[in-house]
Design a protein that fits this description.
This protein is α+β, with helices and mostly antiparallel strands and 161 residues long. Helix content is 44%, strand content 12%. It has one domain.
Length: 161
Amino acid sequence: MQKDKFTSKQLEKLTGLKIRTSHYYVEAGILTPDLQGATGTGTIRYYSVVNLMEAEIISYFIGFGLPKRVIASFFASLKKDNSRSKLDPFEILKCDGDISLFFLPDIKNEQVFHSFVSSKMDHQYLRDIDFKDYDLYPIRLTVNLKLMAKKLIEKLEGFDL
């Protein structure tokens, strides 16, 4: 069963991202309801399945203790090249092998590299980037989207809508 419209309360139950926290990230422009944003006091926000994956990723990042500005820069990089559509959990599960999303922050140029990769492509992608012009954090943050999508869809199937 595939539902395509979720309220803030449903988003919280499915992803664990508290309503107040999701509203905080919406107000900051990091999480943008795809279907209907709040248009005034008492209006309902409606989120898509892509928004649910974004909320899962935000929860994951919060769990690592990442500050909001870092999370914002990661999501800005996804919005910049319209990569958000690749976060559809149903499409992710159709892909062969593990699909990961990784981020490499560049301090010098105030940008973030991101890439969607299969487990086989990961190291090749890193070899294709000429890093000499970048001042990268000594970290690479990787999100296993396949596992995250699988867990989210399992929750959706057992969720009373």
